[in-house]
Design goal:
The chain is built from 25 helices and 11 strands. The chain is an alpha/beta fold. It has 3 domains: about 220 residues, no CATH class; about 190 residues, no CATH class; about 120 residues, no CATH class. The longest helix has 21 residues.
């Protein structure tokens, strides 16, 4: 088995002096963010450690140690130490060490010269003639526009005049605190530096790969948000375009910003970031295209990492991601290129219990760019029927993936979907529907109500941005107070529920149907509901009874069975 990690506690001096290659803060990391408060806390903690009881004498150089935390990294292809966790600490230490170096200047005192040499060995790599060859910190973060200032400070010891970056601000703070220490307690500085270098310890953890390091970081880190998959993927694209020239690299940076903005506007996944969600949708397309035989879908980072992230070293891939993001922007914003019935079907799917529908539609679009309206509508209709049926008969993410995996080839090539081995017995299905708990908290409830709402061909979509909620037509409050139902379970039947605008639900929630009419129709000042069925009920009913609930429930179930039969999903 390959070695997974190597961890050994070391002093600050050992960590930075012993490293033969630079610590690399890679492209995908987030910019340096430490400010005055973090630096002041670090400085105060170091001072209190180095000078117990505010004196030089009470420190035990043999036994006193101060743990500064971990540095998590792996040795990359260039043998550099690519940092996954600890970048803020490393950068801050380098700034502080450079400030110490400047404070000692060209002092001729032998003890000071030795300490200064130790500091320099932490900051620079020296050649065989003891000349400074390169810095031991290489900072390549794409999103950090001030990174040149860090290199300038570490190289020259002088920040750019009036530069306001965190690097310059923090470096000046360390220089000022050093000056204050020298003024208030002459002679203390050399002891502070020695005790930091020799008695402050770090735990450098070296892993065998980037993925191992990232997994360890995700497990151990409790200080902030771990790196997103897209941070890693962005870095791979960045390297690819950088190799094609600075112009291509600059264009990529702008294109990435546009892509991220598009995703942030349109994607709202439960777990991933918006741009991670785009990469996941595209991964499913690649799985279908490559005719994957394994229906246990891989971790996304593992999938893209294959062959050294080969799939991301491609202009075609990035163009495809942009195309896919624009397609979903058109879907979500109801572009007029889509027919009304296609938009209605896409809206129903937006209520689906599982995100699998977005992956499946992405496969279909990427394989059939020039969408035929009739074929696309039939495809959407079929996957809607399958998703809703399986959410009732075989609930669970793993279960719902299987029938779509089998159909990947048909989806990709725009052929009719069969679901041959996943059809359901009508009687068993009806029994399962009767047994299903359609509580408001279950996604299948909203999905079924969305499907039912749009069985009326005259039903318009709600305006963009309008939030819908599930409305109890016979209010829960009325049942609690008056016990009007002989079967209390009927309160949670689909027959007693409908989709209604959130602002109307809030106002109408506890009223009887006769009193809700003003909310459903509107009162001249506030608009009524978009929901035709609710408006129709308000026209024909003054009350909504247990008999009405049961009858409507059967109508929904009968219509759904007919819908599935029409999509050839029943045995």
């Amino acid at each position: 088995m390959a070695k997974q990690l190597n961890a050994e506690q070391k002093t600050v001096s050992q960590v930075f002096t012993d490293c033969k290659k630079a610590f690399l803060i890679p492209e995908y990391q987030r910019p340096y963010s430490w400010e005055r408060d973090e630096c002041r806390t670090l400085w105060d903690n170091l001072y209190e450690f180095a000078f117990p009881n505010d004196t030089i004498a009470d420190f035990d150089a043999d036994d006193d140690n101060y743990f500064m935390g971990t540095i998590l990294f792996f040795k990359n292809g260039s043998k550099e130490y690519e940092v996954i966790d600890g970048q803020q600490r490393i950068v801050t230490f380098m700034l502080m060490l450079r400030a110490f170096c400047e404070a000692f200047g060209s002092a001729q005192d032998e003890s000071i010269k030795k300490v200064r040499q130790k500091i320099e060995e932490c900051i620079w790599k020296f050649d065989n003639d003891d000349n400074k060859e390169s810095l031991k910190l290489r900072y390549e973060v794409i999103a950090d526009e001030e990174s040149d200032e860090l290199k300038k400070i570490l190289t020259t010891g002088k920040p750019t005049d009036k530069n306001k970056s965190n690097y310059s601000v923090n470096y000046r703070l360390f220089k000022r605190w050093i000056e204050d220490l020298n003024a208030e307690k002459p002679g203390y500085l050399i002891y502070l530096v020695r005790r930091i270098l020799n008695n402050c310890v770090l735990l450098p953890i070296e892993t065998d790969s980037q993925n191992t390091a990232l997994r360890i970081f995700t497990t151990l880190n409790d200080r902030g948000r771990p790196l997103d998959d897209a941070d890693i993927f962005k870095a791979q694209f960045y390297k690819y375009y950088l190799n094609r020239g600075s112009d291509e690299k600059d264009k990529f940076v702008e294109r990435w910003k546009d892509l991220a903005e598009l995703c942030n506007r349109n994607f709202h996944p439960r777990k991933d970031t918006p741009i991670d969600d785009l990469f996941r949708r595209y991964m499913y397309y690649l799985l279908a295209k490559n005719e994957t035989k394994n229906d246990t879908f891989p971790d996304m980072r593992d999938y893209y990492e294959k062959d050294g992230y080969k799939v991301l070293q491609s202009d075609e891939t990035f163009k495809n991601l942009e195309t896919l993001a624009r397609f979903w922007d058109e879907v979500i914003n109801r572009n007029e290129k889509f027919s009304p019935r296609v938009l209605r079907q896409l809206y129903i799917l937006s209520w689906a219990p599982y995100n699998i529908w977005t992956y499946v539609v992405s496969i279909y679009f990427m394989g059939n760019r020039n969408l035929d309206e009739e074929k696309f509508y039939n495809f959407l209709n079929k996957i809607t029927a399958m998703l809703l049926m399986y959410a009732i008969t075989n609930p669970g993410v793993q279960a719902i993936r299987r029938p779509f995996f089998v159909e990947f080839g048909n989806i990709l090539h725009g052929r009719p979907l069969e679901f041959r081995h996943f059809k359901q017995n009508e009687n068993i299905l009806r029994e399962r529907m009767n047994q299903t708990n359609f509580s408001n908290s279950r996604a299948i409830t909203g999905a079924m109500l969305a499907w039912w709402t749009f069985q009326n061909p005259a039903q318009d979509l709600p305006p963009l941005g309008v939030e819908l909620q599930i409305e109890h037509i016979l209010p829960k409050k009325r049942q609690e107070l008056h016990h009007v139902l002989t079967n209390p379970d009927a309160l949670e039947f689909l027959g007693n529920k409908s989709l209604l605008e959130k602002n109307i639900t809030i106002r109408a929630a506890d009223y009887r149907l006769v009193d809700k009419k003003i909310f459903y129709f509107g009162d001249g000042k506030k608009a009524g509901t978009f929901n035709f069925e609710l408006r129709g009920l308000a026209e024909t009913h003054d009350d909504f009874t247990e008999e009405d609930i049961t009858q409507r429930n059967e109508e929904i179930f009968d219509a759904f069975i007919k819908y599935l039969r029409g999509n050839d999903l029943l045995l």
